[in-house]
Amino acid sequence: MGLKTIDRAVRDEAKDIVREIGAEQEKVIPLLQEIQKRHSYLPEDLVEAVAQEIDVPVSDIYGVATFYSQFRFTPMGKHLIKVCKGTACHVQGADLLASALQEELGLDGEGTTDDMNFTLETVACLGCCSLAPVVMIDGKVYGKLTSAKVKKLIKGYSDGKN
Amino acid sequence: MEKTKVFVGLGSCGIAAGAQDVFNYLDEKIDTQVSELEVTSCVGMCYAEPVVEIERGGKRVRYGYVDKKFADEIIQSLEDGVFPDKNIITETDAGKAYLDRQVKIVLKNCGIINPESIDEYLKAGGYEAIKKAMHDYTPAEIIEIVKQSGLRGRGGAGFLTGQKWSFLAGAKGDKKFLVCNADEGDPGAFMDRSVLEGDPHKVIEGMLVASYATGAGEGVVYCRAEYPLAIKRLNKAIKDAEDRHFLGDNILGTDFSFHLHVKEGAGAFVCGEETALMASIEGKRGFPRLRPPFPAESGIQHSPTNINNVETYANISYIILNGADAYNKYSFKKSYGTKVFALAGKIKRGGLIEVPMGLTIGEIVEEIGGGTDSGRPVKAVQMGGPAGGCIPARMFDTPIDYDSINATGAIMGSGGLVVMDDKTCMVDVARYFLAFTQKESCGKCTFCRIGTKRMLEILTRITEGKGVPEDLDRLEELAHHVQKTSLCGLGQLAPNPVLTTLKYFREEYEAHIYDKKCPAGVCKPLITIRIISDNCTGCTACARVCPVHAISGEVKKPHTIDPDVCTRCGLCIETCNFNAIEVV
Ligand SMILES: Cc1cc2nc3c(=O)[nH]c(=O)nc-3n(C[C@H](O)[C@H](O)[C@H](O)COP(=O)(O)O)c2cc1C
Ligand code: FES
Asked: pTM higher than 0.80 for the full model?
């Protein structure tokens, strides 16, 4: 791994992140969260540069990163859609909603559309269970959805109306 | 002249229901000469959101279902100096049924005060408990009071809080930690979110009292990342409390100090388990470990640590201010005080409720919740999330107390209460939970890792109509092995949803296996979707939405569905306005 050349700019960014968050072992998760906050996923070079910066084997960092479902290893689309698959949403038809979304986006399960417009993820509960079924798009929660409503919502995002 | 106050409930749920839009609209239109707009959080009546309250001359009236149109009426009434007389949600039969049985200790300020204002918390009697604790009692006396109150941990296991604190107080070491568990991993539960969003200072104050009682100088709130608003409000509350010297060094001018910060979770259910949570705080993978040593002996950085749930801490200030007796007057058998529940699923009035111990499940579901939203019969409630179980309607006289709930095979859990009607398939529910725990298993214990996978395979096969008679015995056997050989609660309790549904709804499993039928009409491979010719008007709406073009027919004539093409997605049922499509 040490042989790989990492861009100067990436190294600088790694330094910057470590300066901001800290270099102790207990900061590994906040460091990863900061990387993801900046890039919407964990770019390999940057993770490696941060690992070197804090002097922790990069394998250890990936050990942590892959354990937690929050972390993404591929770039995210322009809009992030999280479909709730919590219990309340499940009994109120979350599966139907998820298939409607997949159909609308042309995805087979979770993932990102080819045009990089949307990333579809599932989440275990958004804490808005009384509005089930629920979907979160770019941090905004929409409740009491039906397949028809969710399709319309997505169209709104594609057209830049929402 | 005193201004009229207008409060808008801006909890995550309210915002999702449109409360932010209502707030912005009012903000734009309201005449600030006569009225002022205030932010509050969720008052618990989620079914009626967005909720707005108007306060004038000592009278406060609560309105629900507020949209732009009604907001206009509110604006007009403010100008006229009157209260609107429609959409009042507290004085109606429904509102009374929802509210009258509740006792609010933990949720007292939620939806009433502005959670982002420390002054409002102070005005509501905030930080009096820590003053009283430091002034009137020794740390040992505080622990005794908490013991006497009978408070048991609200995070699931129900361990006596006072006793846990005494372990930490007695532990050796100059550095001790306090943790507030706000991971709230149970899908279908939102108690802790609402408390943190609605009254963050109350949680901080509970931790302060715990810190004073146990000698812990440092605290962490471990909050799940899916709760951005809770994290934001908590961080603001911590900063405000520091500025007023309730947190930090030299608290209230004494040499007592307590430092508190927030740590964001990263999405792993197992991290709600206390030893995994501590590993996660230390920046490691969230693997649980064997206990002992218990956290009070060796926790974060090997220092003595105490972990309590959000709601547990939120009970403390009431206990200190009112005494143990005032708290445990709400009691049933060996459970004391109140419990907060997140009422959701197929329920008419869903939301956040706080009830005294001893109320029955039926009283919660039928009286407070008003039965199902569909008007169909209630079949069961699911309590305790993936670690809990399904309690059938015929056992709804079971009282809310730790022991009675445990006796059913479910657990009190952290307070998720999901209602199910006769259109919920219990085999599907069991499969759903097992899919969850199987995915969230950290993989450390073999049976939890592989046993749950095999159980999931069996359940999936049953829901696909490929189950065989031996499957039920196999499921039970595997369930017992997973229970016995798992290190942490995740595996030990994972079989509960399967075992309780097998116990109470065995006939549904049998219908799937022997008759190849899903009585609730949920499991796709076992159902057929059919058009009822008599009801069909031939409006063509269903044919237009069907993604696989399985529906055909002439305009204004009854349509038909080709069962070989139909994927049973259910879109047509959702679309039909004439009740003309059924599942058989
Ligand atoms: C798999 C698993 C998940 C858990 N998740 C949570 C949780 O989200 N919140 C919580 O407070 N306790 C959770 N617990 C319970 C904690 O381990 C611990 O018992 C609790 O936080 C102690 O606080 P209390 O005594 O105030 O209840 C979980 C336990 C297990 C085994
Ligand atoms: S179950 Fe979907 S928001 Fe809670």
From this structure: yes
